[in-house]
Amino acid sequence: MRPSGRNLDEMRDIVIETGVTRHAEGSCLIRCGGTHVLCTATLEERVPPFLKNSGLGWVTAEYGMLPRATHTRMRREAALGKQSGRTLEIQRLIGRSLRAGIDRSALGERQITVDCDVIQADGGTRCASITGGWVALRLAINKLMKAGDVTSDPMLDHIAAVSCGIYAGQPVLDLDYVEDSDAGTDSNFVMTGGGALVEVQASAEGSAFSRAQFDEMYALAERGIATLVAAQKAAVG
């Protein structure tokens, strides 16, 4: 039934390659099927003004798509002079999600910026960015700990995200672009490694969906998150 031939509860192939850039404190290239995202984490010994002298650290994110990440070329947002509403929404989601897995007191007054650059898009770019962003963040914090700059691990749990939807009347896991563009319902689940919800985005693109359908998508998401967390663990050792 699915265009890819996958089962309803089957994820795309997941590959996470670490240490892909020389200068960033943490980096990875995450491939979720045809969606490829470069994630880098940059450590700075400063915090935004509203956190100065608070003893709390900060994790934030930026997101962007390369011009030929999609079927047709997009103009660079820098050339347009402003970021789109979609870009702003996604990078705020990434930042909120990653902060949910951090003890900001243990991090101390320093900021980590996670940059997520989509090289190739085939659906689920925000989910791949969150999942890969966590890996880059983990690697950057590992360096802090190795240097003795933090006394306890600020990472509370894994953070990962996956999409689910209603496609051709059936709940499916990890939508690619073909499914996403034709789905009756589209949702994104951000969860911790322990299974707690961080954020849920769900919208009816066609007809409204039922509580039973939502519960089916939720169950699929739990299965997908477990697969993603296993891939994160394998990537960071």
UniProtKB/TrEMBL annotation:
UniProt keyword RNA-binding, yes or no:
yes
- Read off the SUPFAM superfamilies from this record: Ribonuclease PH domain 2-like (SSF55666), Ribosomal protein S5 domain 2-like (SSF54211)
According to the UniProt record, what class of enzyme is this? transferase
Q: Where does phosphate bind?
A: 86, 124-126
Top-level lineage group: Bacteria
Output the PROSITE patterns linked to this UniProt entry: RIBONUCLEASE_PH
**EC number of the protein:** 2.7.7.56
Q: Which residues form the Exoribonuclease phosphorolytic domain?
A: 10-140, 159-223
Any GO MF annotation of the entry: tRNA binding
Example GO biological process term?
tRNA processing
What does the record note on quaternary structure?
Answer: Homohexameric ring arranged as a trimer of dimers.
Functionally, this protein is described as follows: Phosphorolytic 3'-5' exoribonuclease that plays an important role in tRNA 3'-end maturation. Removes nucleotide residues following the 3'-CCA terminus of tRNAs; can also add nucleotides to the ends of RNA molecules by using nucleoside diphosphates as substrates, but this may not be physiologically important. Probably plays a role in initiation of 16S rRNA degradation (leading to ribosome degradation) during starvation.
Q: What is this protein called?
A: Ribonuclease PH
